[in-house]
Design goal:
The structure is a homodimer.
Chain A (H helix, E strand, L loop, with lengths): L2 H5 L9 H11 L3 E3 L6 E3 L1 H20 L3 E2 L5 E3 H4 L3 H7 L4 E6 L2 E9 L4 H11 L8 E10 L13 E11 L2 H21 L6 E4 L11 E8 L5 E11 L1 H6 L2 E3 L5 E3 L1 E8 L1 H10 L16 E5 L7 H14 L4 E3 L6 H10 L4 E5 L1 H6 L1 E6 L5 E5 L3 H25 L2 E4 L2 H9 L3 E6 L3 H11 L2 E5 L18 E6 L3
Parallel strand pairs in A: 3-7, 15-16, 15-17, 20-21
Antiparallel strand pairs in A: 1-2, 4-6, 5-6, 7-8, 8-14, 9-10, 10-11, 11-14, 12-13, 17-18, 18-19, 21-23, 22-23
């Protein structure tokens, strides 16, 4: 099978990005559709990416004092009603258990769409005094939101995520935590996923149901649409009042705590696919690639080739590299194409002549360059190369993202900007009506407020004095 | 607070083991009750044990070629009916989603009690040829079985577990996998949890719903009851036929695969508590202890004590030891008691006089011995000590277990044996009626068949020729 045949397995990335995405996630065996509408099966190749994401992010959490725990899946429906905006936001999407153990339940139970309510209930029991604060707990779990339109990783009825929930003695400390976790997400996205993000406060319209303030990180996808890749919420005392989370302060007075929550999900895998992919398929950043280096023996039947391939693999594995020798009975060309489609960052080709010359051919997935490299100190060379690839992917992605930020001072300008696949930065008065107009006219939404910039004129939509500069974009 | 006060917080382990267990799991903050009956919240100290269990067991899985994946939580109810015994076994315990997204569902959905049916459905789609075999997939997830009587970790409506599901081309290979995973579990229990186990085939009465054969591992708890700590099932072609898992064999014929499944759960935490605990509370094996070494400064206000404590901690952490300095403003005695209750394997006490003498007092939780040890090469000393403690805990537990195996040749003898908190090994004819009689007369069940022994006489219950030697015990 030649390269062309392989490429024709997946739709043209320029012509039909949505189909390209679907083809890639299915054909690389990241994912499959589950039998219940809107559900996905995360297959081993996809789940290994999630494991690498978890491991990296979890160690960042632990470095800032967050501990993991596990709270129940099922939440009494009545809990949602305790916070008015929260129930309005989530009730329509909830899956409900009405029967269990062969009998009808007295109270229907929701499968968690998010866990503020049940975690808040436990916190009210655990927290007595300022000495118990801060509480910094995270859980890795499955959640369920019944969605009408679903796509693997991007929007599914069940997905995997982490949700952190913290309680603090003061507003300042809670807000500081909210921003700290937003920045942790940004660093993770940039350093580990090689994806540059815009971070900032969400508008009132776009914030989380029940939050005082939501901060988000937005990543530009190759089709010009933005993907919300993580959020961090400051609740003030909203949930503390609804769930009676009180503590005896240093001053001897009983008072409500200040809470936050923050989450990222398997959606991050979708972000990686759509930020880095190309016509041939996946391009995975080394830090999360299940296989970082694939070694393909050439003329494998010749004496010593398989042995040399495995010797190279062992040397790489000893350096902590996830390496794999593809010994299957297929042509090298077929294998090259398959591993390109699967996005393996570095491919090593080794044949009898290479062995003679003490080199191996080394191909980078990100820029498709292929060069012979000496087998002396090969594992160190490859370690450095993986680091180079990781950084190059970020730089390329950042360059692309930076070129996709334009300014506009009119509704028409916003439309043109998003039509041209950009983030459009515009002055905004702060009112909901103007956001609605942008949605109607340009099918775009306010992604985040640019907190590094000051409004310097009038609202691009209504012409009244501007309060903020906002990034508008079409979004997933 | 003196030691006595602490101990009186938890019930007497000799007088009321059940209450001791409940007190220990709640007061050490391993767990709390969730708001929905039968659910538990796994608190950070308990979840950290689970994380250590996962990390260790998962690396063992990966060493034998098993990969992780994730399958949906919700399973169409109709799937259970495809395997007759399976539906009979699980339907009564299932929690059912009838409504979602604000509407009634066309078909009710079960929250997975186990995933053979949905995984089988996906396997039938993925497997075409013998080249696709074996399939060796595991998932770490939550499952739900609606139980009437529940206890934290031991039996809860929702619990966390891993379930491995494999498909093979032949009966021999599938049976080999079943036994290989049983042995992996046994090694894990013995090496990591320091718990000796009896392994063997389950009787027909006790096997998994839908299996051709179930193999289990049983651990003796301090109260003389056995705990089933893991199972491995051989399904033959039962599930392959029910879910149409077929492959084109090397011989060119289309044939059904042979499947297995194997699982362990958060129940393992209950096993650790009840196999190693004592009057003062938890005794945790070093390999899974969230904190392996707690360092308690004595006369902490004196210059240099806190600094030395942290210096010791840093040296331990550098060796990969999970160490913690307890700097809280409480008396050393109070801290000693608390960390004993929480089962921390090694406690280091460091005060001004110790520093002068270049020693630290080192107390072992498992045997309560306390000795001064030189601070020279201290991290190496402690590394070796943790290993010693791990081994000593296993040896002690094994000695206890071995002393709890007795023989009986009558129903009365079985009753006496289990009354005296033993595994009772007896000849057995192999019939269900005799198992039922043991259950009625002695409130005991057949735990596993002793596959290392040959029946050598008549059934202890009915007097007919014996087929097997079986271990009977009261059980959780």
């Amino acid at each position: 099978m030649d390269n062309k045949q392989f490429v024709t397995q997946i739709a043209d990335i320029e012509q039909n990005f949505a189909q390209w995405y679907t083809d890639v996630v299915l054909k690389t065996e990241l994912v499959d559709y589950g039998p219940v509408k809107g559900t996905m099966v995360i297959r081993p190749y996809g789940y290994a990416i999630w494991e690498n994401i978890q491991k990296d992010m979890d160690s960042r959490f632990k470095q800032v004092g967050v501990k993991n725990a596990y709270f129940p899946l099922l939440i009494p429906m009545s809990y949602f009603s305790k916070e008015a905006e929260h129930v309005e936001g989530f009730a329509p999407e909830v899956a409900v258990v009405t029967h269990a153990g062969g009998a009808k339940l007295e109270e229907p139970l929701a499968i968690r769409p998010t866990s503020e309510t049940i975690i808040g209930t436990m916190y009210s029991k655990w927290i007595q005094s300022y000495r118990d604060l801060p509480v910094l707990i995270n859980q890795w779990c499955n959640v369920m939101r019944w969605e009408k339109t679903t796509r693997p990783f991007l929007r599914t009825s069940e997905f995997l995520w982490q949700e952190g929930h913290t309680v603090h003695a003061s507003e300042e400390e809670a807000m500081e935590e909210t921003i700290k976790m937003l920045n942790l997400y940004r660093e993770f996205a940039e350093e580990t996923l090689a994806i540059p993000v815009l971070t900032g406060r969400k508008t009132e319209k776009e914030k989380f149901a029940g939050a005082k303030a939501t901060f988000g990180m937005e990543a530009m996808m190759l089709d010009g649409k933005s993907l919300q890749a993580g959020t961090s919420h400051y609740f003030g005392q909203n949930f503390a009042e609804a769930f009676n989370i009180k503590f005896l302060g240093k001053n001897g007075a009983l008072q409500y705590g200040y809470t936050t929550s923050w989450g990222t999900s398997t959606r991050l895998i979708g972000a990686v696919i759509m930020a880095h992919g190309d016509a041939r398929g996946l391009v995975l950043p080394p830090r999360i690639a299940p296989i970082q280096v694939v070694i393909v023996p050439v003329a494998a039947h010749k004496g010593g080739v398989i042995e040399k391939a495995n010797e190279i693999k062992d040397a790489l594995v000893a350096k902590g590299i996830r390496a794999f020798v593809d010994e299957r009975d297929m042509s090298p060309g077929w294998k090259f194409n398959e591993w390109e489609m699967k996005g393996v960052p570095v491919r090593v080709e080794i044949g009898p002549r290479d062995i003679e010359n003490n080199v191996a051919m080394v191909a980078r997935r990100d820029n498709l360059e292929k060069v012979p490299l000496s087998l002396d100190g090969f594992a160190d060379t490859i370690t450095a190369l993986l680091d180079t690839v990781q950084k190059a992917m970020f730089e390329k992605s950042k360059k692309n993202r930076d070129a996709r930020i334009v300014e506009a001072d009119s509704l028409e300008g916003i439309l043109q900007g998003v039509d041209n696949k950009n983030f459009v930065r515009a002055n905004w008065c702060g009112c909901r009506e103007c956001e609605d107009k942008v949605k109607e006219y340009a099918q775009a939404t306010a992604r985040v407020i640019d907190e590094n910039a000051t409004a310097d004129g009038v609202c691009a939509i209504c012409g009244k004095p501007a309060k903020h500069k906002v990034f508008f974009a079409r979004a997933y």
